[in-house]
């Protein structure tokens, strides 16, 4: 059967579950074995790690010839810190202070406006997936600061309502992925960082961090990696899926915020049983994936989590989540709010793409604007000043931005680069 681009053999899963009931897992024995294996493969990919001197930026510092460190015409107002930190730390500092970062906490992971503060938002997912990447990067010897920066904000381009926001925008625009590329959050994150932040001047991030933003997701529900990726970008793909799969199981089936729709632990015992192979709680499950990925990657000589038993079982589990949960959630009420707000934006905005403004809303703002409609209040550019997007409307006016193009052709693959040490300059766009 097919689910979100994934294939899951039900007969195989049922037979595995039968065997496991007859012969229970000795978790402690497996954990000790995996821990010993991690010592054996420690630093296995260190020779492939991205180096600080590989950092590539779009605009050379020398191109900013205003003679000023700060001001409206200064391309990089953070260049003074470059001699004191690594390129990736500079990017993290800039991202931590960005408007994109401030919106992340009010964006859906799966549950929109969760009633329980322990249910993850998109910000929570970014932080915890960075933690997964850091552990694997440290074990394998990869560039941990780069991984941390890229993963901390890899989902910065998500629309309100999570992936349903993407589906809505594509439906509204008529972008089917055949006649026109689809809107996707991974592209939007790069657009925000390059063309929206700081009055349209962008954050001046390294190409390597933007590459993690762009390629952490393939858009087909699978953790696809290829040889053109740096090892850090490849690891970001796997870290993202490992984190959200086990976190979503906890949030949806343990905390049961969607119980009224029938999403309860009692109904989805098969998912919980499949997850239990990896461990008795989320930390143990994540550890099992981390350890098996590191061992397989060491054996393959590059980041890999596709062939070992844990990888096969993980893909099957993720397939169940797509088929039985993600694609089955009733989002009709959320969809109606999106339709209302989008139409209000179309009427209110002059010389600004409503799809771009819609993409920048968070869940609270979507709810606020939908509430204004319910109260028969009109939305104008003036009333939009009450929310975050109002700050940037003047910078968007008349701006032609292709929401499906990450605009990363100015970058060069790390293995092909012969860059100078990072001084904020290597490539001019």
Q: What spatial form do the alpha-carbon principal axes imply?
A: globular
User: What share of the residues does DSSP label as strand, in percent?
Assistant: under 5%
Question: At CATH's second level, what is the architecture?
Answer: Orthogonal Bundle
The CATH class turns out to be: Mainly Alpha
Number of helices: 17
Mean pLDDT: 90
Structural class: mainly alpha
CATH superfamily: Hypothetical protein af1432
CATH topology: Hypothetical protein af1432
Number of strands: 2
Widest beta sheet: strand line-up: 1-2
Q: Give the distance, in angstroms, between the N- and C-terminal Cα atoms.
A: 45 Å
Secondary structure layout plus pairing:
Layout: E1 2-3, E2 6-7, H1 10-22, H2 27-41, H3 87-96, H4 99-104, H5 122-140, H6 144-152, H7 163-173, H8 185-196, H9 207-215, H10 231-254, H11 269-276, H12 282-300, H13 309-324, H14 332-348, H15 354-360, H16 363-374, H17 393-396
Antiparallel strand pairs: 1-2
Helix pairs in contact: 2-12, 3-6, 5-6, 5-10, 5-12, 6-9, 6-10, 8-9, 9-10, 10-12, 10-13, 14-15, 14-16
